[in-house]
């Protein structure tokens, strides 16, 4: 058993309106960053998960996302375990 | 006289008005703390408005795992009436007792002002004393009020008459199909974003004498007809046998 560093990225589902992302995009345009488009805002969570293997840590993190950390109706998530990305 | 449990979460802030509204309608209403596991023979459960757990993570996301929610789910699954107002609606969605979810208002601002809603369905435990098509003035007070649901479920809600209240005149938060409130397939679990408990007396309106537009939500649950009792009697754990 050891602690695996898990990063959880939760994003509003792509088809849904993201007013926060839009507001930030407008602010960037107002500052002259005209090369910016399709800004979206999500959440980034970092946790230590004690597990016997990386796969086990990944499975536990997925369970946490499915039950609490992400809302399956409105959000998508992806995971990074010890620096390796997983969908 | 119905026994009405008003659930209190850390961060609930409409619990007292909701209790007063239920009592004014003649109910035997009482508070149940979120740590409790017993609804004390409740006939009706109300999840009030507020900011449970500071709206951390998502509105309602943490409250839905409170100890009391297992009892609320059991009550709902047994056919018992449940009303979620504002944060209560968000909690019911997070708990999966109602479909969809509530996201940040389309124009980001926290909205605290009167809104106008039309009663589209009156065959629910909380709208049976209204007339279909009646337009009510009821305040909203929310930052996350934009009802979102996948297109298939939205079509199903429309086809099966499960949109109970709809915003009229304007859509304050960008809600799908102007939805302000819905009911589950069993027609016993209802969620509403506006606050009917804040419109319990004529004097509370905008001067049009409509300040009690919300009162019949609470009178409806008290006046619920006998067939609802028949459902209640079949509920689990003897909870409804006293009805």
Describe this structure in words.
The complex is a heterodimer of chains A (87) and B (243). With 87 residues, chain A is of the alpha+beta class. Chain A has one domain (2-86): 2-Layer Sandwich (Mth169, Chain: A), CATH 3.30.1280.10. Chain A has 2 helices and 4 strands. In chain A, β3 and β4 form a beta hairpin. The longest helix of chain A is centred in the C-terminal third of the chain and has 16 residues, at 54-69. Chain B has 243 residues and is an alpha/beta fold. Chain B has a single domain, classed as 3-Layer(aba) Sandwich (Rossmann fold), CATH 3.40.50.880. In chain B, 22% of the residues lie in helices and 23% in strands. Chain B is built from 6 helices and 11 strands. In chain B, the strands form 2 sheets. A 9-stranded mixed β-sheet of chain B has the order 2-1-3-4-11-10-9-6-7, sandwiched between helices. In chain B, strands 5-8 form a two-stranded antiparallel sheet. In chain B, β1, α1 and β2 form a beta-alpha-beta unit. The radius of gyration of chain B is 16 Å and the shape is globular. The N and C termini of chain B lie close together (9 Å). In chain B, 56% of the residues are buried. Mean pLDDT of chain B is 91; it is low at 226-243. At the A-B interface, α1 of A face loops of B.
What order do the helices and strands come in, and which of them pair?
The complex is a heterodimer of chains A (87) and B (243).
Chain A: E1 2-12, H1 19-30, E2 43-51, H2 54-69, E3 75-81, E4 84-86
Antiparallel strand pairs in A: 1-2, 1-3, 3-4
Chain B: E1 3-8, H1 15-24, E2 28-33, E3 44-47, H2 68-77, E4 82-85, H3 87-94, E5 101-103, E6 111-119, E7 135-142, E8 146-148, H4 151-159, E9 163-167, E10 179-183, E11 189-192, H5 215-223, H6 226-233
């Amino acid at each position: 058993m050891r602690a695996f560093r898990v990063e959880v990225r939760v994003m509003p589902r792509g088809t849904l309106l993201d007013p926060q992302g839009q507001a930030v995009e407008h602010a960037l345009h107002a500052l002259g960053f005209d090369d910016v488009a399709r800004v979206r805002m999500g959440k980034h969570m970092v946790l230590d998960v004690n597990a016997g293997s990386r796969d086990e840590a990944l499975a536990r993190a997925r369970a946490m996302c499915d039950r609490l950390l992400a809302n399956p109706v409105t959000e998508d998530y992806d995971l990074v375990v010890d620096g390796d990305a997983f969908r | 006289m119905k026994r009405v449990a008003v659930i209190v979460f850390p961060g609930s802030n409409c619990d007292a008005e909701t209790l007063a509204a239920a009592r004014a309608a003649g109910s035997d209403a009482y508070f149940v703390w979120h740590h409790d596991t017993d609804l004390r023979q409740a006939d009706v459960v109300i999840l009030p408005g507020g900011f449970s757990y500071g709206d951390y993570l998502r509105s309602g996301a943490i409250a839905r795992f409170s100890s009391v929610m297992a009892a609320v789910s059991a009550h709902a699954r047994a056919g018992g009436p449940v009303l979620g107002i504002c944060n209560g609606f968000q909690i019911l969605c997070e708990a999966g007792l109602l479909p969809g979810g509530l996201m940040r208002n389309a124009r980001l601002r926290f909205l605290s002002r009167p809104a106008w809603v039309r009663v589209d369905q009156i065959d629910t435990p909380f709208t049976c004393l209204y007339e279909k098509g009646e337009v009510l003035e009821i305040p909203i007070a929310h930052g996350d009020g934009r009802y979102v649901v996948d297109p298939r479920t939205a079509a199903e809600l429309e086809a099966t008459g499960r949109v109970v209240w709809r915003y009229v005149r304007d859509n304050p938060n960008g809600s799908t199909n102007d939805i302000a409130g819905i009911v589950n397939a069993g027609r016993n679990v209802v969620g509403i974003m506006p606050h009917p408990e804040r419109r319990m007396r004529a004097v509370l309106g905008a001067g049009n004498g409509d300040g009690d537009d919300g009162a019949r939500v609470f009178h409806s649950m008290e006046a619920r007809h006998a067939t609802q009792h028949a459902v209640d009697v079949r509920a689990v754990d003897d909870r409804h046998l006293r009805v």
